[in-house]
Design brief:
The structure is a single chain. By secondary structure, the protein is α/β, with parallel strands linked by helices. Helix content is 42%, strand content 15%. An 8-stranded mixed β-sheet has the order 7-14-13-9-10-11-12-8. An 8-stranded parallel β-sheet has the order 21-20-19-18-17-16-15-22. A 6-stranded antiparallel β-sheet has the order 3-2-1-6-5-4, sandwiched between helices. α5 runs antiparallel to α6 and α5 crosses α9. It is elongated and about 95 Å long. The two termini are 58 Å apart.
Length: 765
Amino acid sequence: MTQDKLKSSKPESHPPPLMRAIREAMAGTESVQERLDGFATAIQSAMSVRVASIYLLRPGAELELSATEGLKKSAVHKTRMKPGEGLVGHVALTARPLNLADAPGHPLFSYRPETGEDPFNSFLGVPILRGGRTLGVLVVQSKQSRTFTEAEVEDLLTVAMVLAEIIIDDERVGGKKGKLKGITLAPVRPETMEGKAFAPGLNRGTAHLHLPPVSPANLLAEDVSEEQARLEEGIAVLRASVDAMVSGEAASLSRASKEIYETYRMFAYDRKWVGRLREAVSSGLTSEAAVERVRNEHRARLMKARDPYLRARLHDLEDLANRLIRALSGEKVGPGNRTIADDAIIFARELGPAELLDYDRKQLKGIVLEEGSATSHAAIICRALGIPLVGRCEGILDLIETGDDVLLDGETGTVHVRPVESIIDGFKLRMTVKGELTKAYDALKDQPAITRDGRKISLQLNAGLLVDLPQLDQAGADGIGLFRTEFQFMVSDFMPKLKEQTALYQGAIQAAGERPVTFRTLDLGGDKILPYIDPVPEENPAIGWRAIRIALDRPGLMRYQLRALVAAGADAHLRVMFPMVTTVDEMIEARALFDREVERAVNLGLTLPKKIEVGVMLETPSLAWQVSAVCDHADFVSVGANDLMQFFFAADRDNARVSDRYDPLHPAALSVLKFIAHQCDRNNTPVSVCGEIAGRPLEAITLAALGYRTLSMPVTGIGPVKAALLKLDAADLSATLEPHINVESRLSSLREIVQDYCTRNAIPV
């Protein structure tokens, strides 16, 4: 691939004349209308044109002439057209500039006599874009027939971007002076969006954009040459980071996956993309504003594309833009260091676990994502911390502004933006009811979960970070059934040292006291990428080189972690389990690595754990049918239901199109879970479930009926699950389900049967 050379020639230090005129027009404290008039006058003068006009989109989806210099002033706020109507409407519809030497001769030309535009031939219209939304159109016209130069088009695009931010900002904070006659551009009307509930909870808070637009005060560069240098430095840093992704393991990739990965790299070196950034900076924008402008252009065009492939490319460009902005800022954000309001609800396209932990947990009231999945790491952490999360709210970022009032419903997946009083009143009532339920669950926290027929069910917590540990006592959990050790690796900029790993594991053991803590060794690969290790792109990462496969192929990393676990377990009860084991041989090999670390500790005279248990995480159908054999080598079995169901139904749990297509209460799925529980019982091997289904009351009581005595779940699940189990007769439910869990079953799910059973027996689910 040919890499275009970074430009070394220095441009003019001062902004172009049009930018200087716009800067002057921005000064003062005029009303929005006066400022728009000033913009039109400045553009007309600086570009030496006869007409400069600003058309803005009304709430009724009509473009309205809002300011002009050169047309009749009497037409302002009276001349209107629909998107697609006339030349101005065409620019709004396509989100592309239109440059004509003979406007009246164009087939889309729409004559409006009230504007007095008869003598004008040349036409240049550019869209006013913000966040992918078209807010209006900026137009210049000349009497003589000529095509505007590329530089003039570029300058007008820059002005359009500045104009968008200025009028939105004025409208948001300017009060009555910030309102235009009959036109509202910043989202102000109430909106209700339906998404997917990924972490439960109800909260009211203030919207905070995870990646807010560039502020109006930081749009125009004071010194173009310095800004050009900043941009080139940022591009170089971006390209270096992307280059690192295709180094190392790249030579061993399959041809298909390597081509996909190289495509992403190609975007970073794309002459057109980089050229647009350079042009924007040369026109007088800051580097950040240039990135935002080019991002807006791509969003507006690609989101109109019907081709799903083209729409998917938007994500690549979004990611590159975000990476470049981070490279430009040089900012290194530490955990909890981002400044937000005390009741912030974060809005983002997607959010990684490290980004989530950048925010102060005490101030964070909820998360709303345009994308996301129920089993993403952000969702897992939110459930662990009790933070409501709603995902797959497509298009919500175009409807939200930082500071908006938000009602977040993590129970139904609904988000109310700028809600009306009636919605607020109903929401407050639900919050009150939920608060009463929480009090009721708190009253049960010291009561053991014993079913009506005498089965004691151990309810344990899923955890992965020190911030999770106080939840043990708050929820009355019986221990930690799943401690995800990879979280420490994923939220760090560097590989955690041996002492750091040991300290984390010791902290978990000490917090649990006499209660058990089950540490899962590193489950990396797939969607779990470390920031300091080159990822290995694969055609299907979920069933690729991950978890125990990486550990056995690279035993140094595994032994390093096992060494920390053995040290942390000194004089304590140590439980360790291996993830994603698919064959008994893998379990034997992994346990041998653990035994070598125990032997090393003995030889060095180190203090050993008082008790050691080594288990296996059963997540694959292959191991499910060899569960009796693996019990010969495992002290316990933990069913990872998330991956087991994913592989069983061949449905990627991170793919929004297929992840909801299966029901874990399908009779075939329950037959597998029942078989595992039965085989473990025959071999006197303790078995538990630590997937998401363990934390949902309906599924949890079903698991208890199948014979499971230990369930590990997010903290939000312990209260509701315990309340349901206390009302359950497990043997009776088992007898109800038994006729339907066999190869002769014709049902697609047993959910209705279980729900009907709960209704008849007053079991709260």
